[in-house]
Amino acid sequence: xxxxGLNERKMQILRTLIDxxxxxxxxxxSRTISRKNExxxxxxxxxxxxxxxxxxxxxxxxxxxxxxxxxxxxxxxYVDHLMQVQALRMDEIKxxxxxxxLKINEINTxxxxxxxxxxxxxxxxxxxLSPRLTKTTLKSVQVVPVDEKKILIVAVVSTGVVKNQVVxxxxxxxxxxxxxxxxxxxxKLNGRIIENIELPSALEIQLETGVSGEVANHVIDGxxxxxxxxxxxxxxxxxxxxxLNHPEFSDLIKxxxxxxxxxxxxxxxxxxxxxxxxxxxxxxIGTENEHEVMRDCSLVTTVYNLGDTELGTLGILGPTRMxxxxxxxxxxxxxxxxxxxxxxxxxxx
Length: 349
Prior knowledge:
The chain is of the alpha+beta class. It folds into three domains: 8-82, Winged helix-like DNA-binding domain superfamily/Winged helix DNA-binding domain (Arc Repressor Mutant, subunit A, Orthogonal Bundle); 90-132 and 235-348, GAF domain (Beta-Lactamase); 138-231, Enolase-like, N-terminal domain (Enolase-like, domain 1), CATH 3.30.390.10. It contains twelve helices and ten strands. Strands 7-3-10-9-8 form a five-stranded antiparallel β-sheet, sandwiched between helices. The protein has a three-stranded antiparallel β-sheet with strand order 4-5-6. Strands 1-2 form a two-stranded antiparallel sheet. Helix 1 (8-24) crosses helix 4 (72-82). The relative contact order is 0.14.
């Protein structure tokens, strides 16, 4: 429920002001609103209502302009109560479908593709967190030769993710030895849930396959790295340079601070992981963001799922003067497509 005094007339003026400011990036005056508003109010009446909205904290007046701009509070009310979600155009729907519904066989590739297309369609930066695949199973392990002194350990999990690790062993192993080693690891590890896997000891590998203790230790180290890579969520970013197309990011010092933050993978992973705790679609506006350098930004995130299990997050980062109606519509649609594609990928394994 909104605060006392925010009547229908004020809400319509606020909606008109924010809609216009989102499109033009220019402070909005009473004359502009009077031309676009259907209430039939005079400029003087609109000025009085705008003065009330400013006093209530929904809009503010830049020092150099007679017009008004939305505050974070104004944007929040707009997103929660006033905004009319704009449906995607048919060509945009086709773009998304063409990019994603291409029989992709691996979830991380799917999320990378989704992140790329949502950035392209919205004109903002996209940030995605791929699934942590701890609940998936190991589908296959192979040990193959690279050259005389190196072997390659290849691990494939049930979602199609492939991880590999080059292991330096110092001398050449016969192909039949590598085959025995691969078969042993397959028998020992295939079908196991990633987070529950207990690797065999070097001594056990040595006794069962005939390789040296040194080689066995190298194989264990390589497998550990492969499985750790599977468990770690991948951070995916696209279109960060799109932010430079918006006037809010003309201050090079502020832009550098924001880009520096975005380069801190651990920080951004934590930010996107926190978004997974929020159900459905979430919008954080300006000062609602945790990090100071994001106070001029809005972050729209959605969680993609497999059934009732949350797998990862997809987000759009842009100015607080974001085209919220288009972004929310695009995010809602792409989430549905992602969820359907994940079901297909899993069912085809």
